[in-house]
Amino acid sequence: MPGAVAPLKPVYLGIDIGGTKVAFRAETDAGPVDETAFAWGPRHSAAADLARLAGHVAELRTRLGSPLRAVGVAMPGTVSPDGRVTAWPNRPEWTGLALDVSLQELFPEAAVAWADDGDLGALAEARAADCGNLLYLGVGTGVGGGLVLRGEPCPGPSRGSFELGHVVVELDGPPCVCGRRGCLQAIASGPATLDRAADLREAAVTFDDLRQALGDGQLWAVSAVRRTARALAAAATGVQELLHPDRLVLGGGFAAGIPELAGWVSEHLTEFARPGQLPLPVGPAALGGLSSLRGAVSLARLIATR
Ligand SMILES: [Zn+2]
């Protein structure tokens, strides 16, 4: 029809809010259309950060020229069920901020939801693997995790996050940052593994030292990483008993740098399997550091259909 204007394609926006930078990825049903990031700069106040965010969003809107249908946000801080930030060690001035109200003010035209990095990592990896029931473990500075069941994050937006890193796997284990003892994170994070390796070696151990020593088959390095693998397998077995995912995906910077880890976790999953129970298949993450941003876009697509 002469003069007809093509309808604007709705845009799904993912935002990964980090402690030092913020990344954006916009997609339409046809694929990605925009990807940008900015660094926060010096810490000042949550209001200053939100103004910075609003400025970037305004530029993005101008570039896109299409309405935002839904926005998914990866938020590393702890958010209470009523939408308030209760803790964020990297940007403590956000504590007390009403995240739900602030995001809705930024995106009045769109459906908005947030989730933590682990939950969104799981969602992105589940999409990448085309697997609707997937357990994700991100092993880095901490241990993050997420579970996708029937294609959706569990327990789901506004129900809290899947904090597998704070599940107790050793009753009298080492202290965790959360105040308990024996949390998975206190045993299996990158720093916890390096500390244990240093104790066993009786000398300081860097990540590169550990990798090198593993390659050489040094006992202190193998023992340190084996205990990490066994703790990860214990936590994953607990999830398997309760919720029966189809597979486990291992991501995070530490896991990416230790190629032995996935195989050892698999061995310990076999060790823990009850008679008649098949151990979970384990594989490496497909998306690496991109998983939370990709997961934020997936979250946007998920809430847009509601
Ligand atoms: Zn803990």
Explain what this protein looks like in three dimensions.
The chain is of the alpha/beta class. It has two domains: 11-115, Nucleotidyltransferase, domain 5 (2-Layer Sandwich), CATH 3.30.420.40; 130-285, 2-Layer Sandwich (Nucleotidyltransferase, domain 5). It is built from ten helices and twelve strands. The strands form three sheets. A five-stranded mixed sheet has the order 3-2-1-4-7. A five-stranded mixed sheet has the order 10-9-8-11-12, sandwiched between helices. The chain has a two-stranded antiparallel ribbon with strand order 5-6. Helix 7 packs across helix 9 (260-272). The longest helix has 25 residues, at 219-243. Residues 166, 176, 178, 180, 183, 185 line the site of zinc ion (ZN). Zinc ion is lined by residues 166, 176, 178, 180, 183, 185.
